[in-house]
Amino acid sequence: MATEADRILSGVYRLLGIGTLSDEDKYSRIDDIVNQLQTINTKSPINVKTTGTISERLCELALKTAIPYSYEHLGRDWKWIGNFSIRGNPFNLIVSVKSFKAKERLLASGSGHILSPTIGWGLFDDISEWSVDRINSYAFRAFIAIYIPQTLYSRLSPTAKAKKNINGKNFLRTLGGFISDLSSALINDKVDLTKI
């Protein structure tokens, strides 16, 4: 039985003419998908649980494409930490998926421990949530990268864009780069955390 999330996503895919495309090809249009979802949400706010499900499904398009045998969906008892676990080397990686607002929910998610770092992934639309101080707090909570929509990324301050992670790579990145970042870090079905 189709859920409300399925109905909304199907409508967006149909509007963009990508309903029959592969997961990878759909994800290649992530910025268009996000823009359509933000337009829908602005006109008539989507239930938070529904946007959560939509966000998870979009993130999973990328995971299925980049690392199909190296991730698992976390069960209900693990929702406070994140939505997906990625087999990593030397440690596993958590992916915490959020929808339009990060609020404190993103900051409180993840393990908070460098031995199990976290990637944030979301449809974020509020520039006020991305100050340099706030970005630093994510790094303190053992986030290794956060993926945000291109429209939000283009509005970040140069200082926010310049923030680096523990590996000397960009901390904030666009959703469109998620697949290539994971694919290039994959070695023997594990993501090398030094390459993220």
Major sheet description: 6 strands, mixed
Helix content: 40-55%
- Contiguous helical run count: 9
Amino- and carboxy-terminal Cα gap:
37 Å
Secondary-structure-derived class? alpha/beta
Strand content: 15-25%
Structure summary:
The protein is α/β, with parallel strands linked by helices. 42% of the residues lie in helices and 17% in strands.
Description:
This protein has 196 residues and is of the alpha/beta class. It is globular. The model has no long low-confidence stretch (mean pLDDT 94). It contains nine helices and nine strands. It has a domain of 136 residues. The strands form two sheets. The protein has a six-stranded mixed β-sheet with strand order 1-2-4-5-6-7, with helices on both faces. Strands 3-9-8 form a three-stranded mixed β-sheet.
Topology:
Blueprint: H1 4-16, H2 23-27, H3 30-43, H4 48-66, E1 71-73, E2 84-86, E3 88-89, E4 93-98, H5 103-108, E5 118-122, H6 132-140, E6 143-148, H7 150-153, H8 158-162, E7 172-174, H9 178-185, E8 186-187, E9 190-192
Parallel strand pairs: 3-9, 4-5, 5-6, 6-7
Antiparallel strand pairs: 1-2, 2-4, 8-9
Helix pairs in contact: 1-3, 1-4, 4-9
